[in-house]
Design goal:
By secondary structure, the chain is of the alpha+beta class. It is built from 2 helices and 5 strands.
Length: 101
């Protein structure tokens, strides 16, 4: 589990080969967030990919699109902070559709 001074870090929401996603809360104002932590052996590549993903999310607008809060580094590990909102993940949506098919 990661420790960040500006955020309380909660349970793991998902884990993949290159990242772990945690539930969290910003301590300054209580904002519910999602913390996406890159866990890649090649940190330079992970930083570039995380910066690219963050930049794309900043440009996207619309209902149902997660908004980025900030991009930080814990040591040399990139952490993308995203606003948390109620909804179903893309993976959950696909599993739901497969089950109903």
């Amino acid at each position: 589990m990661i420790s960040l001074s500006e955020y309380s870090v909660g349970v793991v929401l998902s884990r993949s080969l290159h990242s772990t996603v945690y539930e969290g809360r910003r301590l300054a104002d209580g904002l519910a967030v999602v913390l996406k932590v890159r866990e890649d052996e090649q940190l330079s590549r992970a930083k570039i990919e995380t910066q690219r993903e963050y930049a794309i999310l900043q440009r996207l607008t619309g209902t149902g699109i997660v908004r980025p809060v900030e991009l930080i580094e814990k040591g040399s590990t990139p952490v993308m902070v995203l606003e948390q909102f109620d909804g179903v993940s893309l993976v959950g949506r696909c599993q739901f559709r497969e089950r109903d098919a």
